[in-house]
Task: structure prediction
Amino acid sequence: MKAIIYRHNGAPDVLRFVDRDLPVPGPGEVRVRVAVSGVNPTDWQARSGVGHPKRFSEVTPHLDGAGTVDAVGEGVDQSRLGQRVWLFMAAAGRPTGTAAEFTVVPAEQAVRLPDEVGFDVGASLGVPALTAHRALTVAEDGPRRLRPGALGGRVVLAAGGAGAVGHAVIQLARWAGATVISTVSSPEKARLATAAGAHHVINYREGDPAAEIRRITPDGVDIVAEVALGANLALDLAVLRTRGTIATYANDGGRPVELNVPQNMVLNTRFQFLVLYTAGPEARTAAVQDVAAAVHDGALPVGEEHGLPLIRFPLDRTTDAHRAVESRAVGKVVVDVTS
Result:
């Protein structure tokens, strides 16, 4: 099979396009013929060594993807053969991610993809959708699970609604019944957040965004899903309701976070920092189940018309795919692996 590998951490040019033997699934595992591989910031960070110590002599990157089960290991039901699936955390703690024609994962990390849902959607779930689920389920007064109506009466602020996680936050929050506000930095990104389903979209670089959000929700925002905590904290606190939650999954821009302790004491602010690797198995299992239900309901489409443009590369140009993600391309970067 064809695969992408790297043996040393570094810039995108450490990636190599190589031939490898077909992997064999072990007990409790499935082998998947990968159709589309999704690329996330955590993939290039792992490749470069930023916060992700390299544990194997050779690594095939990428956590997310979608394809078809073509072999099963001992203990896995034979009925899974031929099943269309989406994959998550394929390269987490393992040397074999989805940037290859075939990959092997634990059976529970290959989730059934409905026949009417394309592989592009499947490859765009994983990190973004599971992260979004976690952000929406950590408030003090819940909910812990998402379903239609679970966020009824709540107001969610999706910072950076044109990004992959922000896009998933908008879609999942709407599916769960929330009123969704998104902040963006340009008219083009506003168009994308609106296409994703945000009820209100605000350019934070214009006018008084805090006053505009307060006009929409005088009592404040219940949950903020935050991508740039250092840059956006003042705005978040200006619009957060008492006992509201700021769930942060990144600090884009790297601005230091400075807390006004008395202000947060009075607000009873809840800060939740999150990353999938250490979220715990119960939280991940709940997220997978709820995201699968949302996919079944058609709530997580991708593409330009749904607010998340797809930026495609063939497998032998995975280096360029990594460069696109590192340069903060607007949209979802995917690698076409097999037809």
Q: What stands out?
A: The CA atoms of residues 245 and 270 lie 5 Å apart. The chain has a mean pLDDT of 96. The chain is about 30% helix and 25% strand.
